Amino acid sequence: MPPNSEYLAIATKRAEEKKTHVSFPQLVYPSLRDDGLRDPVQWLTGKAMDDGAEGIWRVHDGLYDLEPFLQIHPGGAEWLELTKGTDITEAYECHHLNPAVNKVLEKYYVKKAKTPRNSPFTFKDDGFFRSLKRAVWTELQKTPKHIHKRTDRIIDGLFVAFLISCAISCISKSYWIVMASYLSASLSLAWLTVAAHNYIHKKTNWRMYLFNFSLWSYRDFRVSHALSHHLYPNTLMDLEISGFEPFVFWLPLKNRFYGKFAIVIELATFGLIFPVNFFKRLILNFLRKDFFLNHYRWHDVLGFLTPVWMWVISGCSFYDAFIMWLWIICTASFIFFNIGSNAAHHHPICFRDGDEVDDVTRDWGLHEVEAVMDRRDINTSFFRVMTFFGHHTLHHLFPTLDHAVLEYMYPVFLQHCEKYRAKFRVTTQFDMVVQQIKLTAMKTPTLLEKSN
Question: Count of domains in the chain?
Answer without folding.
Answer: 1
